[in-house]
Specification:
The chain has 218 residues and is an alpha/beta fold. It has five helices and eleven strands. It has two domains: 5-109 and 175-217, Vaccinia Virus protein VP39 (Rossmann fold, 3-Layer(aba) Sandwich), CATH 3.40.50; 112-174.
Length: 218
């Protein structure tokens, strides 16, 4: 890993960057949220090879260098809601690749049972301990899926046992099925080298929950 130039898109607070920087990678992260970018800098600057964290939009960025590896993890690609968004994103990615660069995309495979749930009903998502009160926070979600745009509108409801829905957050995600991913990668000038169905590099298949793409410039 030492000496490799790596660009992570939508790097968040540096969760994935931590091990890469620790192993000596020449790491750059791009993050839309200034708060997340500041937290990533604080977390990663403990290492001697201090990384570069840039605040910017992954649909429109110019870093004036190429990278050996570019990746976007943990479903962040799903926040590109239109074909125009993804095309702009791919154009920027290619500008930062050289002839031997690899590009990795990690997203889940949409489950129809998840997309077409009854409207207005909340389903449990996760639980965690609130850092201030140490109470258990229970998170539930509801969704409305538009099959024409392939966009899933999600609402998360945060509750304590004694305080229901103390916070409500809404966000949107594009649901990319494998056939669509293959199409847009090829149309945007990439060659698919591998398609995996999990983090153990199992082949993408009918029972896979993830779709992970390893591509290069065609």
């Amino acid at each position: 890993m030492s000496g490799n130039t790596i660009l992570e898109l939508a790097c968040g607070t540096g969760r994935l960057a931590n091990s890469l920087v620790r192993e000596g990678a020449d790491y750059t992260g791009l993050e839309l949220s200034q708060d997340f970018a500041d937290l990533a800098k604080k977390k990663l600057n403990q290492y001697g090879n201090a990384p570069t964290i840039v605040t910017g939009d992954m649909r429109n960025f110019q870093l004036n260098k190429t990278f050996d590896l570019i990746f976007i993890g943990f479903n962040s690609f799903l926040h590109l809601l239109t074909d125009e968004d993804s095309a702009s994103f791919f154009t920027c990615v290619k500008k930062h690749m050289h002839e031997n660069s690899r590009f990795l995309i990690d997203i889940f495979i949409p489950n129809p049972l998840f997309l077409y749930r009854p409207e207005g009903i909340q389903f449990p998502v996760l639980e965690y301990n609130d850092s201030h009160s140490d109470k258990i926070v229970k998170v539930q979600e509801s969704n409305i899926y538009n099959a024409d745009t392939e966009v899933n509108e999600l609402t998360w409801y945060f509750s304590f046992d004694d305080q229901k829905d103390f916070a409500i957050e809404q966000f949107s995600m594009r649901m990319y099925f494998p056939s669509k991913m293959n199409q847009i990668l090829i149309e945007n000038g990439f060659r698919i080298l591998h398609q995996w169905g999990d983090y153990y590099r199992s082949p993408l298949g009918e029972g896979s929950k993830l779709q992970i793409y390893d591509v290069c410039i065609a």
